Amino acid sequence: MEFKSRMKKFFKSFFITWLLIMIICIPYLVMNSYVMSLSDGLLIKDLDPSVPDSFTYCWTIFFASFCILFNNKIGHAIYWIVNLLWIFIFVVQSVYYPLTKIYFGFSLLQMASEGSSYAIDVIKNAPSIVWILTVSFLAYITAVFFLLLKRFEKKSLLCYSGSWSDRAAFVIVICLITFVGRKIAIADIGEYNETLEWNNFKNPRNVYESFADSNKSMRISGLFEYTLRDFYFTFLKGDGKLSDDDETFLEKVFEEKKAEKNDYTGRYKGKNVIFLQLEGIDSWLLTKETMPNLYSLYESSICFKEHYSMYTGGGSTFNSEFAVNTGFTTPFSYNCNVYTLSSNSFPYTMPRMFRKQGYRVNAFHMNSKEFYSRGVNYRAWGYDNYNGLADQGELDELQYELDRELILNEEFYNKMFKGKEPFVHYIITYTPHTPFTASKKLGKLVAENYYGEGNVPEDLDEEAVVRLMAGETDYMIGLLIQALKDNGLYDDTIIVAYADHYLYTIKDRSVLDKYKENTADNRINNTPFFIWSSDMEEQTEIKSVTMQFDILPTVFNLCGIDYKPSYYLGSDALSPYRTGVAVFYDYSYYDGKTYETIDISDEPNTAAEIKASDMIKKNDLTLKYDYFRHMK
């Protein structure tokens, strides 16, 4: 009878304990559901929809269990701290996402300006539903505490009221449930791709492991896993420790130096700036016949003939965006997609430097903010906004891929040309994109726009389709110039135009052999780069070798922006004292005369080799160890 009585009491206690745990979990589940619902439009391909739920169930049981592990004051304190903490985090996410369309991360607390503006926004713009839910949560946890927790505690019906050995067993069971549950959830995310591929941002496991895109990370992890990983990555993980030699090297290359003035310094101070990143516009496409509008600008510009856009399997388009905005490039010595570096500190980016001068800075592209994680990256760099046509959802399936829509779109047009403050616009074109065929998709649409529906020749080859697509980009440029004139901005705006990469996407490589020199090595990366202003009557040719990371210091010099040259990988290409070097992913380099590959096992010898080697080392150490964040 005694055994039967003990077992009855045990099962009753066990049942009440787990029932109370489930009751305590209810607000957590509601919090997670609401926060996740804010980004319902973001769907991650190949993600098992049960994964975020699995993480959530594991953590809610874990937190609720610890709320009832101890009795009296300790247990009461844990209960209130845990519940109030998660309610606070719920409020933060529920307010921040509607305002920014990006989930909050602890890294923002390390930026005072972000934190202060966020606090004001919380007070001014909190949705009423958030406060209704918050009050409901507070009422719920108060009722659970006084009506259930304290009542059952006095009757000693809970497992936690047993001996310390019972509590220890309880803790072990809960930890095992959490550990095993998380492992299963992580396994269900999929396989991690260790190679440097451009589309790793689409792989759920890569997104989870890198934890670089807050929106995708939330969709994969759920509120609780996301918050704990965010705390770990921000405050505990660290960036590794620099060796003494590497730290000495970085201290030397980052020594503050004043920017040397030259004949171009401040020539366009106070003017508006348009960065025009041209998708796939290789050097052989920049002709009067194929692209008359762009060619007209090119003929009246500062032209950098020896310019190179580094190809990288990690995404050459976004690498160009990263290089022009931050002054650094894809790492050479380890695999890292630069769109995963959104949590790194970049205090001297292009938008931040221009915004200090009173400019508004916006980016415009056809693709959504989730592609290449542009939304979180452009915010991390300091942009006012990243604007994607695909995020509007107003155009037909292919219409938004036409570059003309960047100017014809009313919202984009007003943002570009109707503001009062001086502006910097970062415009990224798209149309010259694969597949280069007139029989389907975008190629068919472009060909029909040019020839008329039903009149498209059947024998159009790849080169012909590429030229038609480049013509669409050129049409957009014509619209851009006309809009500047119509809004009285033509004489007050400069255009910084460059290709994101050579046309490596073309299948018929004989086209490249026909039009480009040095197609057998990395000098095939030679692409257009020029800076136009209406006051230029003829082309000024600059022969110094340049790459994408040289664009930013060059523009700073032209616009009279006070900057620190050592804080960038490249240098002002207009300096008469400059020796330019192009470096490529395989450790090869080109200085305008010599093309060689560095043997990383040996000490560099020539001046060009030393410069290239130092650039590679500076780039990789800075990015890997987030050096700007910890710079003394």
What are the main properties of this structure?
alpha/beta; 22 helices; 632 residues; Alkaline Phosphatase, subunit A
Mind explaining what this structure looks like?
- The strands form three sheets. This protein has an eight-stranded mixed β-sheet with strand order 5-4-6-1-7-8-2-9, sandwiched between helices. A three-stranded antiparallel β-sheet has the order 11-12-13, covered by helices on one side. Strands 3-10 form a two-stranded parallel ribbon.
- The protein has two domains: 2-236, no CATH class; 251-630, Alkaline Phosphatase, subunit A.
- With 632 residues, it is α/β, with parallel strands linked by helices.
- The chain has helices spanning 2-37, 50-67, 72-100, 112-125, 128-154, 164-189, 204-210, 214-236, 244-253, 292-299, 316-326, 350-355, 374-381, 389-392, 405-408, 410-417, 441-451, 462-486, 509-515, 548-558, 607-624, 627-630; strands at 272-278, 301-304, 307-308, 360-365, 385-388, 423-428, 493-499, 529-533, 540-542, 546-547, 582-583, 588-590, 595-597.
- Helix content is 50%, strand content 9%.
- It is elongated and about 100 Å long.
- The N and C termini lie far apart (73 Å).
- It has 22 helices and 13 strands.
- 43% of the residues are buried.
- Mean pLDDT is 91; it is low at 112-119.
- Helix 1 (2-37) runs antiparallel to helix 5, helix 1 (2-37) crosses helix 8 (214-236) and helix 2 (50-67) packs across helix 8.
